[in-house]
Amino acid sequence: MLTPSPADAAQAAMAPLPADRPFIRATEVWVPDAHGARLRLASGLYGDMAEFAAVSGAESFGVAEGLPGKAWAEGRPVVLKGFRGSYFKRTEAAEAAGLTAAVAVPVFAGRTLKGVVVFLFGDDAAHVGAVEVWRASQEPGAVMRLLDGYYGAAEHFEWISRRSQFPRRAGLPGTVWASGSAALFRNLGASHRFIRAEGAAQAGLTTGLGLPVPSPTESAYVLTLLSALGTPIARRFEIWEREGDGPAALVDAVGDGGESLFDGAAPPVVAPGEGLIGQALATGVPAASDAFAGAPANAAERAAAAAGFGATVVFPIHSGDRATQVAAWYFRGGEA
User: What are phi and psi of 150, to 5 degrees?
Assistant: First the structure.
């Protein structure tokens, strides 16, 4: 059951702030082909980068080939902060589009790869946010430490993060690690739950989404997306969860609209296979698409479209070989 907090109400009441561009410039989803031998582009949000999108659509990756293939081979998220001279295969097209860094996140159901989500970034002086990869061993007493991350211009916050560690249930990484579930943190700069609150306030970070990243390796991984008002990762974040094989209910949401997307009514449930969120539940495959904007497939998507959202990323979270949660984040028209 979704229970709004006073902080949610305050944030929902705020008018959307303009941004030159989102913190993440492009999001791609690469999935195994019918033979399971190569990764091919299944969906993507490229904004105005049509040439880079065309190059990407003609590309494919084998195991350990390019950034998506490396994440597949290593069974864990991979951060790449420079393309030239690296294993990145689309360097010329990326540089022409102003892209400078990327994070690739594999989505596994058990030991089966469902897809690789790639986030691409471009540096500029006002580019603030964070996409972090945290790792812990399975040994008793282990803690989460930063494996790597991309922070844009938030250099001091990066310095703090590289010197931070989280036991289970502590901070956003430790909370996600302990529960094995997605989590949303609000008002990061004033949150007693967010251990790096002072640094977040200085950097202007406001909202955090934490995602468990199941891995066939012996380590535990957590992905954190930390969004700022000026260069947001997205305009709205949601977490959907189901029990058994039934429909998914909205369990948390933050960002533009709050619960007002549903006109005061209880948020709708989404059946497996119904719309982008339902397809992610049914198949376990992530997606990055603006397809629902033209023909919304369920009540939740109709409400999002009516509120002016034009693109969505859906990220399924697996327990064993089943998708039990879906994290979704939304953009307004022209932002992605």
Answer: -120, 130
Local structure of residue 270 (DSSP, 8 states): B
| Least confident range of 198-202, 208-212, 247-251, 290-294 | 290-294
Task: Report the alpha-carbon angle 94-97-98, nearest 5.
Answer: 90
CA pair distance 286, 323, nearest whole angstrom: 10
Place of tokens 């990869």: 133
The 10s digit of each residue's pLDDT in 321-335 is 999 999 999 998 767
Contact (CB, 8 A) for 237 and 328: yes
Q: Which residue has the tokens 């989280």?
A: 166
- Give exposure, 148-159, as e/b (b: 16+ Cβ within 10 Å): bbbbbbbeebbe
Residue corresponding to tokens 């582009």? 41
Name the CATH architecture for the domain at 1-16+240-336: 2-Layer Sandwich (3.30)
Token pair recorded at residue 224: 């954190």
CA pair distance 61, 218, nearest whole angstrom: 25
Centroid of chain to Cα 165: 21
Contact 318, 284 (CB under 8 A): yes
Looking at the DSSP assignment, which residues form a beta bridge with residue 112? Answer: 109
- Give the whole-angstrom CA distance, residue 73 versus residue 258: 39
